[in-house]
Amino acid sequence: MLQKVVLGREPTHVELHSHTHKRQEDQQWVDERARKVFEEYTQIQESQVAASEGSSNGSTEYSDYRTWSQAVGGMQHGRVYGLSSQAHAYEGQASGGSSFLVSSQESLCSQQITTLSSELEHVRKAQAD
User: Fold this and answer.
1) pTM for the predicted model, two decimal places
2) What does the alpha-carbon distance between residue 41 and residue 46 come to, in Å, rounded to a whole number?
3) Composition bias, kind Basic and acidic residues: at what positions (predicted)?
4) How far is CA 66 from the centre of its chain?
5) At residue 93, does pLDDT exceed 50?
């Protein structure tokens, strides 16, 4: 099972999708939709990375959600394929996913602190030179 213990962090949407939608014996996708979603997500993410080289605008986690949502065609019938009720936490709607939202916010804060600390270190080194 793909867990925080194995990865040392929470799995991303696409990591969880790959883990749960591939057969263990041959690593083949369980169906065509699963494969297409993965490929679409990968293409969107690559184009976003190329378009935003060097900029850090916003949450990585929220950006990952938006990319995933775009790859699967957005919210349908109140759900986003592969996320179940977690989509409501990102969409800002009331749901039972409030503990997920708190966990996501904590993770986001931790990532932002790490990024800002790194940027501050680079600025200090540049000023010292």
Assistant:
1) 0.54
2) 9
3) 10-28
4) 8
5) no
